[in-house]
Amino acid sequence: MTDNRHGIVLALLCAFSFGVAPAVTRLAYMAGTDVFTASAGRFIAGVVGVAGLIVLTRGAMRLSARANWGALGLGVISSITSLGYMGAIFYIPASMAVLIFYMFPIVVAFGARWTEGEPITWVKLVGLVVAFIGLGIALGVTFEGLSPLGVGLAALASVGAAAHVLAISHVARWAGGATLPISLRSMTVAMVVSVSLLAGQGGPAWPVGTAGWLGLAGSILFFTLGITLMYATVARLGPVTTSVILNLEPLVAIVTAVLLLGEPFGLQQSMGAALVLRAVLWVQLRRRG
User: Exposed, middle or buried, 179 (CB in 10 Å: 0-12/13-18/19+)?
Assistant: First the structure.
């Protein structure tokens, strides 16, 4: 039970970190940086940060051959997911991209039936669907200006995110629960991909001004925390419960955008947020009961 509580705390911190990242990243974008610079910076800092954490905690760096190859595969999946999500936001409204992307908890629930042997209970399924509907309300999704390519990229990112979460569960078991060396290898692969793309675009586009640099630094910090915490959370709670709690991430993003960017937050966002929170709490309480 204690480990489960620790896992829930880690999941909440993960949702918070991933939720803050978009708003602070937008500050960097507004100051002149671009997607490729932010992405490369995130993964470079992630590799350095996780490696430093392993050294400070005197953790093991080595993995079994199976866990090692699994971790490298996670890096490939992470790269595909990130590129799909960024591309979707370029082609379709961000609210629609987020909504399509956050179908991944439902995909995880069905996928875990075969990969984890975890039953699809009506509590989990109803909770996931209600949370998804709440996200749609909170994000104020519009169907105007949709591009088939953008929708396809968002769907690819959603499937990639589900595959990532499900695969983490297996690779963590192969590694005996040691998630830091898994995260290090995964982010190293993603770093190579993102740096290669950045070089192909002509190099970094640095932000201008203090706010821009703070935004870029915040994007790097919160993304690194989020991805590291996600690996540890899945290892403790499993893929389905982790995915349910991560539905809180877009709500954190909305609140952060209101506080940092002055974006509107009205009755519609409040109702959607309340629905998501209700669904997540209901699933957790029913699991304990």
Answer: buried
Our measurement of the distance from residue 134's CA atom to the centroid of its chain's CA atoms, rounded to an integer in Å, reads 18
CA distance 131 to 141: 14
The single residue listed with the structure tokens 């671009």 is 34
Q: How far apart are CA 236 and CA 7, in angstroms?
A: 5
> Taking phi first (over 0 means left), then psi (-120 to 50 degrees means alpha), and beta for anything else, what does residue 32 get?
left
- Using CA atoms, how far apart are residues 93 and 275, in angstroms rounded to an integer? 22
d(CA 129, CA 103): 9
pTM of the entire predicted model: 0.79
Q: Which helix (H) or strand (E) holds 263?
A: none
Please name which of 182, 160, 191, 169 lies closest in space to residue 67, comparing C-alpha atoms.
Answer: 182
Tens-binned pLDDT, residue by residue, of the chain (289 aa): 455 778 889 999 999 998 888 778 888 888 888 888 888 888 899 899 899 988 888 777 888 899 999 999 999 998 888 888 877 776 776 667 777 888 888 888 888 878 777 776 777 777 778 878 887 787 776 666 678 888 888 889 889 999 999 999 889 889 888 888 999 999 999 999 989 989 988 889 899 999 899 989 998 899 889 888 988 898 888 888 888 788 788 788 778 877 887 766 677 777 877 777 777 767 665 655 4
Query: Is residue 202 left, alpha or beta, with left meaning phi > 0 and alpha meaning psi from -120 to 50?
Result: left
Backbone φ and ψ of 130, nearest 5°: -65, -40
Measured CA distances, 256 to 28, 153, 244, 252, 261 (Å): 15, 25, 20, 6, 8
